[in-house]
Amino acid sequence: MRQPLPGGEDPGEETPVTLPESLDVVSYSTGSEVLLTTLYPTGSGSGVYTGTYSGEVRDQINIVDRINSVWYGCAPDDNSQLSSQKSKWNIWFDGSGELTLTVDLTNMTWNYTAN
């Protein structure tokens, strides 16, 4: 069941009407969309999603909410803040090996930790 999301603080920021059942992490660096991993909710209605990724692609990444047709990148001045604005940048992360990705749609943030 999808839950309503609270409104964003920035009136220009697009916020989904409902929480999706999952989020896709995709790369568009090869000229076509490549699914890297899928994130799933950590709890009922929390707006927090998590999943693991162990591939080599570490940049040109977007987080896609297919239910609400929203593509998230990061804010140009803060890689940890999600943005769906036209001015958003692609998300990137450093390092190699397996990572745990966490997205918080309620607070519009994302992060990763090495496993």
Average pLDDT number: 85
State the end-to-end distance: 30 Å
Number of DSSP helical runs: 0
The neighbouring-strand order within the major sheet is 6-5-4-1-2-3-7-8
The arrangement of helices and strands along the chain is: EEEEEEEE
Strand content: 35-45%
What Rg, in angstroms, do the CA atoms define? 13 Å
Quantity of strands, as a count: 8
Largest sheet: 8 strands, antiparallel
- What class do helices, strands and sheet pairing give? mainly beta
Query: What spatial form do the alpha-carbon principal axes imply?
Result: globular
* Unreliable stretches covering 5 or more consecutive residues: 1-12
- The percent of residues in helical segments reads under 10%
How would you portray this structure in words?
The chain is an all-beta fold and 115 residues long. 0% of the residues lie in helices and 42% in strands. Mean pLDDT is 85; it is low at 1-12.
Characteristics:
115 residues; mainly beta; eight-stranded antiparallel β-sheet; 8 strands; 0% helix; 42% strand; disordered N terminus
Compile the SSE list and pairings.
Layout: E1 23-27, E2 34-41, E3 48-53, E4 61-65, E5 70-75, E6 78-83, E7 99-104, E8 109-114
Antiparallel strand pairs: 1-2, 1-4, 2-3, 3-7, 4-5, 5-6, 7-8
